[in-house]
Amino acid sequence: MEYFKDIMSTINRFLSRRIIDTDNIDITIGTLLTIIIVLVVVTYVLRLVHKFVTAKLPEADKNKFVSIFNFLKYLLYILIVITVLHASGVNLTVLLTASAALFVGLGFALQYLFQDIISGVLIILDQSLHVGDVIEIDNKVSRVFEIRLRTTRTLTRDDKVIIIPNHVFLTDSIYNYTQNHNITRESLKIGVAYGSDVSKVTQILEAVAEGNEDVLKTPKAFVQFDDFGDSALMFSLNFYITNSFGAPGIKSQMRYKIDTEFRDNNISIPFPQRDVHVYQHSPFQHSRVENSTKEWGLGDD
């Protein structure tokens, strides 16, 4: 019995050995081991929770959950460390006061980081942005493929990745082409020569839209006579598609087809014309005047 008491006494002395010993801060080996054990247990429990929840989530929502989960996990770790230190008798008030200057410096340095993190949490909770959305920012159209806690990553039409800080979505105006649904309306501007049969032009444009497999049948494409331009009659072909990210390619196909149909039907697309008026004035008259010393009353000395 005495043997076990000696062992326990030795263990207690070891755990009570101070790592940091000041007037207000007293951290022992036991405190440090308690923090490590609690963190290990909490990490194991969180892994089980993560595995259980993500197994039932759709693939599109997993990344959102992981972002929030990681944020809450690190926040929980900080709370655990503070709680264990406080329970061990560490005077946290003095510790925080001594570190006030450091926290102020870190606050200024990390303010944009925290701003992005909070914005990321709000975006995920608000459901204002989803993976797969087609957005326009700074006149660049791109598709969202990953929403992280601090940044959102998008892919442009020329396969370039844009990394967007999350606070941009809360402070700037962003076009979201697919916020409500995947259907978007696109438009092509076409000019034809004056004197062209406008009814024939309308029929050709409507037929081109109907013949394109990427253009939706409902809502139906329609043609508008927009304006009498300086050198052309201006039309717009409006149509609906579900692949707004691939709109440039669809428009290119339709332009090829329109050009072919116009050639076959003798409809010309004019180039800009300008009338130049030349006004000719009377030619400049030049007369030579000879001055002499006699005319000016200047004689020889």
Notes on the protein architecture:
Helix 2 runs antiparallel to helix 3, helix 3 runs antiparallel to helix 5 (about 100-125) and helix 7 crosses helix 8. This protein has a five-stranded antiparallel beta sheet. Strands 8-10-9 form a three-stranded antiparallel beta sheet, with helices on one face. A two-stranded antiparallel ribbon has the order 1-2. The longest helix has 29 residues, at about 60-85. The protein is about 45% helix and about 20% strand. The protein has three domains: about 10-100, no CATH class; about 115-180, Roll (SH3 type barrels), CATH 2.30.30.60; about 185-265, Alpha-Beta Plaits (2-Layer Sandwich), CATH 3.30.70.100. With about 300 residues, it is an alpha+beta fold. Keywords: Cell membrane, Membrane, Transmembrane, Transmembrane helix. It is found in: Cell membrane. One of its GO terms (molecular function) is mechanosensitive monoatomic ion channel activity. It is a multi-pass membrane protein. This is Mechanosensitive ion channel.
Question: Features of this protein?
Answer:
single chain, alpha+beta, SH3 type barrels, five-stranded antiparallel sheet, 8 helices, elongated, cell membrane
Structural class: alpha+beta
DSSP helix count?
8
- Assembly category: single chain
Question: What does the overall shape look like?
Answer: elongated
The number of distinct structural domains comes to: 3
- Sheet-strand content, in percent, reads 15-25%
Q: What is the average per-residue confidence, as pLDDT, rounded to a whole number?
A: 81
